[in-house]
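Researcher: Next entry: Methylenetetrahydrofolate reductase (Marinicauda algicola).
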Amino acid sequence: MTQPPREAVARPKVSFEFFPPKSEEMEERLWDSISRLEPMDPAFVSVTYGAGGSTRDRTHRTVRRIVKETGLKPAAHLTCVCATKDEINEVIRDYWDAGVRHIVALRGDPPEGIGETYQPYPGGYINAADLAGGIKTIGDFEISVGCYPEKHPESPTWDYDLDLLKQKIDNGATRAITQFFFDPEVFFRYRERAVKAGIDIPIVPGIMLQPNFKGLTRMASMCGASIPSWMDELYEGLDEDVKTREMVTANIAANLCTELARGGVDQFHFYTLNRAELALSTCRLLGVKPREMEPA
Ligand code: FAD
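Model: Predicted structure:
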C-alpha cells in the first residue's frame, strides 16, 4: 500500500527550548540533543532562566557555547525576579558582547512560589513589558515574550491580559510564544481575541513534550493551563511504562500541531525538556525533515 501524497504546503518554521543543565550527565544529554536537532534548521533555540534567576550563570554559559560551537541562533530567557535593573542590564550587555541578539523577556514567578503575590524587586524591572523596554535601550535585540491562551492566572480580565501583551509589543517585542495548551481551539480562540485587540505580531504556539503525565498535571495546575480529560484516559495505567508514555506524548503533540497547521499556523516552538527524540518525531510527523534531505 502506498501513502497518499502529502499536500504541498510550505515547511513550517520550528524552534526549540532547552534548559541549562545541572550536572555533567545532563550537560551531555543537552549537547547530544542540540546536535541532533540542529539539522532541523530551527529559526532559533532558546535557553530558559531558572526560577528566581537561579540559573543565571548556567543559562549564560549554555547560550555562549551555542554561539561558539554551533550555527544556531540562540535566544536567552531573562526574568525580572530578584535583581535590580543595574544587575539585569549587566546581564543584557554581557549577552550583547557575546554575540547574542535575541532575548525572551519575562517577568518570572514570585520567588516564594507560583500562587504567591508577585512583588517587583526594589529597583528592578516591574514586568516583562518594562524589561523589554530596558533591553531595547541597551541593544537592538530581537525580543520574544510569553503569552497565555487561557489567560495569565494573575490577569483579572482578558482586556487586562491583552493590554499587557500590547505594552510588550509597544516596548519592542516582535514575537509572542504561548504557554503550553493541548486543545487547538484554545489557541484559535486566543489568536482571534488577540487579532481583535489589534495584536499583529506572530503568536507562536508553545508545544509541550512532557511524557511525565503526573509532572505535567502538577505544572499545568500551577500555571493555569488545562489538561483535557481525554489525556487522563490516554495516560491511565502508564506510570511505569516510560516508552509507551513517550509514544503517546509524541502522538498528542503531532496531532495538535497538525490541527494548528490546518488552521494556518506555520511556526511551532517545542518545549523539548532537553530531549531530542520527541521533538524529532513530532517534526517528522509535521513534515519537517533535516534541511539536507529536502529538495533544493
Ligand atoms: P508579564 O506578562 O509581565 O505579567 C504576567 C501577569 O502578571 C500579567 O498578565 C498580569 O496579570 C500581572 N502583571 C504584570 N505586570 C503587572 C503590573 N504592573 N501590575 C499588576 N499586575 C501585573 N519563567 C522563568 O522563571 N524562566 C523562564 O525561562 C521562563 N520561560 C518562559 C517562556 C514562555 C514562552 C512562557 C509563556 C513563560 C515562561 N516562564 C519562565 C514563566 C513566566 O515567568 C510566568 O508565566 C510569569 O508568571 C509571567 O511572566 P510574563 O513574562 O508573562 O509576565
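Model: Note for the record: Residues 48-49, 51, 77, 79, 104, 106-109, 126-129, 146, 152, 154-155, 161, 164, 177, 179, 206 surround flavin-adenine dinucleotide (CB under 6 Å).
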